[in-house]
Inverse folding.
C-alpha cells in the first residue's frame, strides 16, 4: 500500500533518496536500504531547516558546492552512533588476557569510536589489567563523524549511560557532577590522557599511521558496509596490524568473503590468516 506523505514539510522524492543513497555510499561506505527512507528524511530535514532551505533539490545542490561545509554535516547526520560502555563485555576479558603476553607499549586502535564509550572501556580494561593509571598502552580512537568525536573527547555522559557499570568502576574512573552538572558523569583525566582522538574515514585509501597496532577494534561499523567494502577495509588493515595482533569485530559481523585475510579465533575476534601474515 502506498503511504501518503503529502503532510511532509518538505517534498522528498524517490529520486532524492536515490541520490542521497549514492552519495553516502561513495563518501562513507554506508549502504542504506529502502527501509531507511523515513530515517533519511527526518535526519536531513533538520539540515534543510538549519540551512534555511525549502527543498531537497536545493539541499542536494548545496552538497555539490565545494565551498560549503555541509558535506561533513551530511555525513554526521546519516551515521548511526549507538554504543555503550563495555558493550559485548567478553571482548574486554579477551583483551586483558591478550595483554599478558604483550611488549610495551601496547598500541590499540579503536576505528569507529563513536561517542567514546568504547575507547574509554578499553582504557579502563588496560588500567585494571596493569593495576596502574599509567599503563604502557597507547589508544588511538577515530571515527568519521566529527560530532561524536567531539563528545568523546569531552568524556561527559548522562548518568544513565553508566548505570550498568560496577560501583568500583564508577568510583575509580568517573567524577559525578554536582549542582548544575548533577545527572552527569565525567571520565577522569587519567583515562583521557591514554587516548588520542582524530577523524578518519575507513574508506580513505590512505590512513595516517606509520606504526603497527597490537589490537584493532572495528566493532559494529562493518554492518553498514557491503561485502565488497568490508573486504577492502579488511585488506587495508593488514599492514597496520602486527602479525600476532587481534582484530575485534561486532557480535553480528562475520567475514567469510575475506577468509584469505582474516581467520576467526573466537567470539568475533579475528587473527590474520596464515597467507596474509606472510604477505603484509
Ligand atoms: C554503531 S557505531 C559503533 C560504535 C562502537 N564501535 C561500538 O561498537 O559500540 C558505528 C560508528 O561507525 C562510524 N562510521 C560509519 N562509517 C564510517 C567510516 N566510513 N569510517 C569511520 N567510521 C565510520 C559511525 O560514525 C559510528 O560512530
Amino acid at each position: 500500500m502506498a503511504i501518503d506523505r503529502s503532510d511532509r514539510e518538505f517534498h522528498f522524492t524517490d529520486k532524492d533518496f536515490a541520490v542521497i543513497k549514492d552519495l553516502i555510499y561513495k563518501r562513507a561506505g554506508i549502504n542504506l536500504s529502502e527501509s531507511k527512507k523515513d530515517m533519511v528524511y527526518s535526519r536531513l530535514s533538520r539540515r534543510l531547516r538549519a540551512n534555511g532551505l525549502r527543498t531537497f533539490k536545493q539541499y542536494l545542490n548545496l552538497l555539490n558546492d565545494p565551498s560549503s561545509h555541509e558535506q561533513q554535516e551530511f555525513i554526521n547526520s546519516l551515521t548511526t552512533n549507538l554504543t555503550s560502555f563495555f558493550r559485548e563485555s567478553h571482548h574486554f576479558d579477551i583483551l586483558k588476557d591478550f595483554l599478558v603476553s604483550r611488549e610495551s607499549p601496547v598500541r590499540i586502535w579503536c576505528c569507529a569510536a563513536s561517542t567514546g564509550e568504547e575507547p574509554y572501556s578499553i582504557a579502563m580494561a588496560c588500567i585494571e589489567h596493569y593495576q596502574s593509571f599509567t599503563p604502557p598502552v597507547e589508544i588511538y580512537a577515530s571515527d568519521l563523524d566529527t560530532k561524536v568525536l567531539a563528545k568523546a573527547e569531552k568524556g561527559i555522559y548522562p548518568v544513565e549511560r553508566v548505570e550498568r557499570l560496577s560501583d568500583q568502576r564508577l568510583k575509580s574512573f568517573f567524577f559525578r557532577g554536582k549542582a548544575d552538572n548533577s545527572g552527569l558523569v565525567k571520565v577522569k583525566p587519567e583515562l583521557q590522557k591514554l587516548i588520542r582522538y582524530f577523524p578518519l574515514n575507513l574508506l580513505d585509501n590512505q590512513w595516517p599511521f606509520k606504526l603497527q597496532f597490537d589490537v584493532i577494534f572495528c566493532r559494529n561499523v562493518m554492518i553498514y558496509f557491503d561485502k565488497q567494502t568490508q573486504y577492502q577495509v579488511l585488506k587495508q588493515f593488514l599492514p597496520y596490524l602486527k602479525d600476532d595482533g587481534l582484530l575485534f569485530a561486532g557480535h553480528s559481523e562475520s567475514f567469510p568473503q575475506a577468509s584469505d585475510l582474516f581467520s576467526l579465533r573466537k567470539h568475533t575476534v579475528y587473527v590474520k590468516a596464515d597467507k596474509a601474515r606472510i604477505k603484509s
Notes: Residues 14-78 form a domain with the Chemotaxis Receptor Methyltransferase Cher; domain 1 fold (CATH 1.10.155.10).
